[in-house]
Amino acid sequence: MSGLYTIEDEDVIQKAYAGLLESIRSKMSSEDRANIQAAFELAKDAHKNQRRKSGEAYILHPIAVARICAEEMELGPTAVIAALLHDVVEDTPVTLDDIRARFGDKIATIVDGLTKLDYDHNADSPQAQNFRKVLQTLLIDVRVVLIKIADRLHNMRTLGAMPKHKQQKIAAETKYIYIPLAHRLGIYNIKSELEDLWLKITDRETYNEISHKLNQTKRDRNAYIERFIAPLKERLQKLNVKFEIFGRPKSIFSIHNKILKKQVEFEEIYDLFAIRIILDVPPEEEKDTCWRVFSVVTDLYTPISERIKDWISRPKSNGYESLHTTVIGPEGRFVEVQIRTVRMNEIAERGFAAHWKYKGVKAQADDVYDKWLETVREVIESSGSSALEFLTDIKSNLFSEEVHVYTPKGDIKVLPLGATALDFAFAIHSEIGIHCSTIKVNNRLVPFSYRLKNGDQVSVTTSKNRTANEDWLSFVVTGKARSRIRAALREERAKQAEFGKEALMRKLNNLKLDFENNVDLLSRYFGFKNRVDFFFAISQEQIDLTELKTFPVTNGRFDFTRKAQQDAERARKSKMAKREFASTHTGKIIINGQEKDDFAYTLAKCCNPVLGDEIFAYVSANGMKIHRTSCPNAVNLLASQANNIHKAEWGRSSAATYYADLVITGIDKGVGVIEAISSTISSSLGLNIRSFSIDGKDGIFEGRLRLVVNNTNQLNKAINALKKIDGVKSVVRQN
Ligand code: MN
To answer: The domain 401-473 is classified under which CATH number: 3.90.960.10, 3.40.50.1820, 2.60.15.10, 3.10.20.30?
Structure first.
């Protein structure tokens, strides 16, 4: 059965498996035990041909992941079984049906979720897609995500054997997806280990330096902690409560962060550790006991009054409960003291993973996760189809801190930090948002874009004839407001388009032309992808319908081939073709609601965006660059530079021009291709060619053309016209 394992392998595998069994702390039935054994044997056999980059047997990886689930997350047998099987379907001949047949639906669903998270890297933004998937599986069974985090943790711990560029990629993805998730799920221990590992991989020198300094100062620090704790211990004993007290070092990553943020040296950081007091009391005595301990601490050491953080009365949005204060310890040093119970400590360290154990103990804590999952569902269901839009929604809704504000009746509303007065209106009801006419905060009128502060009391008035406005999208932050505004604008646009359609019908009627026979021809001629966009443009008077009467007609249809010839003729006469080449200059772009002029950004040369393309902004030391979302570099930038990526939209530009590169291939008929291409562009379309080169071989030619255009409509028109040239087989925009 295990023919490909050596005797040494067998020995190591059995030891690892025995270690796993020992680490399972939850109660197991004999059935659980048998299933775990079966999962182990199945996985061991399935992975027998595989080794990890380090050379060790592959099966050691699923065993280690299962052990993280059991030991560090304290998940039960179901998670352990699923973790053992997590790579089987993806990497081996074993199928999901095999797993369902042997282990049942629940396990099969979890393994399926884990498998799905692993591939499909072909979307416009794989990270965003992946993120969406992670969140979707979260709704099916939170354990999928917990196991995935365990998987990622083990991979990060053992990344050393991988080639450098792979290490960087995995580290980037970890920072981008898994660390915020671990944070949001409150799995503090694992989150902070992942952060340390991330720093170690991306900036080994800094990591080593801090870790070295921590070691150097350890003895002094421990002595100080001892001096701080000793008198406190004595007093706490008099309370007659079971407790533990110790000093806890801060993580290397958080120290590094502080050095960066406060621009200080390692030596100047006073809180390299915190004192933690953990109390063992029944749930009903928790709050009272914590505050009694607080008073003991502050009797002995003077508190810095503004540094009390009471997350017991109101837990953090990820479930964290604890009472923190900073006091002045011996030698005048500031020391942070954290007071919490055994239950709170487990929640603080293992978050969602510990949640099940205490479900029902404290209603408020249950609520925290239910509410969050509800928000996850809302964002997934309501966010736009574009992956980047989705990312923006996620970042502003799920991973940010919160503000608490009040309705006039005193009901509390929780919104993401940065939410505006208008977001509040939408949070009350989407109709109130859409028809919002004035907003008052603490009885004073504010602009809709007012950023809410904790404790604000907000009241909204509405008016029937008010409706959504495009500008609103530039400042609202909640997914709900965003999606409702988009829907309202779409509706409004469709209404406007109806007017455009009627105008066109009247016009065609006057010209005695059939509507259905001509509408799509016209729409394509003007460069629109669908009728609604075309009708809308008409309603906005972007298209001059009086022009239509000059278009040639053949058999009741507009004849654009003939029109092109006529135009070419006319252009030749007026020597339009000799017009000077334009150099590109650009218009305005909106980044996070702010308009930027063309001196504030440059268009990326790798993908040459044109007004109308879907775009994003990438900010680096070299300034801001605008890329198309389909740019081949987008994937890399998103994975490694997520924090420097911003959503971008085209602003209102009028006379701006852009470069677009086309590759034209076709059959070389000897004469006329170059002439046909250049006359189509210059004469019939009136566009400028910046550069043009053509290569031929074996009767096939490939031309490279750089056009100067105002927008994607013009570009599409050009592409369509070029495709119609005799002999041309394909016209493709580059990248
Ligand atoms: Mn794995």
So the answer is: 3.10.20.30
